[in-house]
Amino acid sequence: MKVKDMMHKGVDWVSPDTPITEIAKLMQGRDIGCIPIGQNDRLIGMVTDRDLVCKGLASKDFNSARTTARDVMTEGIHCCREDDDLAKAVHHMETLQVRRLPVINKSKRMVGMISLGDVGQFAGADLVSQCVKSVSAHHH
């Protein structure tokens, strides 16, 4: 099975200057936990719901009116390709200890997002439980 068979298609990304209040509303409205950040037609980072809390709300000088995606995002982006084998993508998540990956096509355009939850609906339980263990390990 390929990544494109189970990814969320048509994921939006926002600019690094986007206020985090707007990002939080996007996450709430779409029931998602992360938003990719792009600039000049390239993905440059990711903001997760955890970033909003740990790097935003919990920071000393937090100001919701002034804090932008750039202030809280995790820089550098890891992706998988839409034609990657599912096991390869899951292994990639495991290695990086992440729960979600943006999906790009051959011309390096973002075409979707894949999460462990998506994989869990289609893949064997073994593949997912093995990955969840390693992804969750660093949160204890």
From TrEMBL:
SUPFAM superfamilies reported in the protein's UniProt record: CBS-domain pair (SSF54631)
InterPro entries, alphabetized: CBS_dom, CBS_dom_sf, Diverse_CBS-Domain
Superkingdom of the organism of origin: Bacteria
Alphabetized CDD domains for the sequence: CBS_pair_HRP1_like
SMART domains: CBS (SM00116)
Keyword annotations: CBS domain
Entry annotated with the keyword Cytoplasm: no
CBS domain segment(s): 7-62, 73-129
PANTHER family noted in UniProt: CBS DOMAIN-CONTAINING PROTEIN (PTHR43080:SF2), CBS DOMAIN-CONTAINING PROTEIN CBSX3, MITOCHONDRIAL (PTHR43080)
Name by which UniProt lists this protein: Hypoxic response protein 1
Organism field: Bradyrhizobium ivorense
Taxonomic path: Bacteria, Pseudomonadati, Pseudomonadota, Alphaproteobacteria, Hyphomicrobiales
